[in-house]
């Protein structure tokens, strides 16, 4: 009889351990559906989400994709809470804010997921080859979306030596590292400073990225590196490179002062269309744009003919030494 009880106890424990390994850790606060999302109340809940993202990367917690998380109240400090791993669900800010006091973005990335209606305050500072921003890097087979988010974060990348390029570099951006999804109705009010690349919304686009109705009001500054190709400074989309896809910049506005060396633009710094064209349309720059070479109110440099610019307006002062234009610095 005792042996039978031990077997039953073992099966009970095993079942509950297996259940715990598969189920979310949020203590009954929601079930992850749209109507009843997991509730994020404090730093502890953020840490639990961070642990879940990491464990998912190791094929644990396979419940994560598609689940919904809702921020229930402001979180006043993010000190030592960094959400490692990519969000594969849906994080709803509800118009609440998180105050950053960290050395990296809120999420390492967003893969086939969404982030919306979140306000970030505070500062992010580090020295790294890779880019830093307030929210995340967007990528995935289906479009990852960052929408209706506001960054008031001061982002500073001091930079470091890159042995591959031989440059001292360190990109920085207000909203996202880079965009291979959709960034829409987002605003950057923070001061952004980087080495080589700096941008109000996203530092680079590697294909299929869309920037829709985004606004930058923050001051954007990039110190130069020795290779002009990686000097990109602008208000919205830092560098538009399209290996297999179509990048669209639509209804975007820059109001901030932008200063750099090469490829300095109010909306886009460097644009190149490969295959399908890059499209920049219905966008306005009203900020002061200053650079040395390839300086434009809308676009710093059009690298080839695969870039379509239409219905764009510049009202800001443009200052440069070579290849300067009100709309395009160099075609």
Mind explaining what this structure looks like?
- The structure is a single chain.
- The protein is mainly β.
- It has one domain: 3 Solenoid (Pectate Lyase C-like), CATH 2.160.20.110.
- 11% of the residues lie in helices and 43% in strands.
- The strands form 6 sheets. Strands 5, 8, 11, 12, 18, 19, 23, 24, 28, 29, 33, 34, 38 and 39 form a 14-stranded parallel β-sheet that branches. A 10-stranded parallel β-sheet has the order 1-2-4-7-10-17-22-27-32-37.
- The N and C termini lie far apart (86 Å).
Show the helix and strand layout.
Elements: H1 2-22, E1 38-40, H2 43-57, E2 68-71, E3 83-87, E4 90-92, E5 97-102, E6 107-111, E7 114-116, E8 119-126, E9 136-139, E10 145-147, E11 150-151, E12 154-157, E13 160-162, E14 167-169, E15 172-173, E16 176-179, E17 182-184, E18 187-188, E19 192-195, E20 197-199, E21 202-204, E22 210-212, E23 215-216, E24 220-223, E25 232-234, E26 237-241, E27 248-250, E28 253-254, E29 258-259, E30 262-265, E31 268-272, E32 278-281, E33 284-285, E34 289-290, E35 293-296, E36 299-302, E37 307-310, E38 313-314, E39 318-319, E40 322-325, E41 328-330
Parallel strand pairs: 1-2, 2-4, 3-6, 4-7, 5-8, 6-9, 7-10, 8-11, 8-12, 9-16, 10-17, 11-18, 12-19, 15-20, 16-21, 17-22, 18-23, 19-24, 20-25, 22-27, 23-28, 24-29, 25-30, 26-31, 27-32, 28-33, 29-34, 30-35, 31-36, 32-37, 33-38, 34-39, 35-40, 36-41
Antiparallel strand pairs: 13-14
